[in-house]
């Protein structure tokens, strides 16, 4: 039996400087916090956080993320959590750090607090985590029992992060509405649970995500380049983290994330960020779905203006484009193409990738001529 299903974090708070109030927000989860932090923030936040917790009569145990969410790292952290009797887990950092903290909390049956330091992926709000499990580090997507109890977003930290992360987050968020629409038409399940389909609310979230990006993304990126937290930037942080996060988990992935996954199999693209691959994938999906030349043109211009990849060269592929397109198409094929409302084959995907590359080059030419 099909059910409608919806999941979300327990609470979402976003403001510039909110990190100062962290112990206030986490008090209800217990006296001792285990904080997994990106090494990058060691000098700026370690002592500060310890002091803040002490002032509130609580304690925090700090550990620095080893770089991969694998068996070794998870075991090391679970040991520390047990040793210090932590009541809850906080992860403070990028997508991988959040994924690791989420998994540790899941294994230890503890509440999880997510503090993203970039607005670049859908990791902060979801219950899904990518783990490199076992002795052979096999990549697995695991559904944790709970979404984060709290997502705390300090907009100033996001505004101070390298701008490429914000742009990539916009790329990841751009796919949300188109993938939601594909899943809705195909009638496939979302990630809320077995046999669950979209609530009407989830479709509204996906649509609002897209509208927010179209209206505010360009200005928000300009503001973030100057490290200024403006209303436009707040809207885009919300779109990248909350709307895109709720959107993807409650509506499902489709062509855009399939292509992104395929791009991940090409060595030349190894430095391309997740959201950058997804932006290119969105162009391929919209082309394949024949949603109209006007929309496609708009999307090309939008991506180009935001410095998101619109050609294979932007993805780092400079030679053997046909072969690379074939490789991407093949590697994408077992992902989410079932969520598309039409039949898709490897040659279709390959053709879409090469057409997007050609249209991307044409867009660049046209836009640059007008400058
Ligand atoms: Zn994504």
Description:
- Helix 6 runs antiparallel to helix 7, helix 6 runs parallel beside helix 8 and helix 6 (about 165-185) packs parallel to helix 10 (about 275-290).
- The protein has a 6-stranded parallel beta sheet, with helices on both faces.
- Strand 7 (about 130-135) and strand 8 form a beta hairpin.
- Helices cover about 55% and strands about 15% of the residues.
- It has 2 domains: about 5-160, 3-Layer(aba) Sandwich (Rossmann fold); about 160-370, Dehydroquinate synthase-like, alpha domain.
- The protein is of the alpha/beta class and about 375 residues long.
- The chain has 13 helices and 10 strands.
- The structure holds zinc ion.
- Zinc ion binds near residues 122, 172, 257, 274 and 278.
Short key terms for the protein model shown above:
single chain, 371 residues, alpha/beta, Rossmann fold, Dehydroquinate synthase-like, alpha domain, 6-stranded parallel beta sheet, two-stranded parallel sheet, 13 helices, 10 strands, globular, binds zinc ion
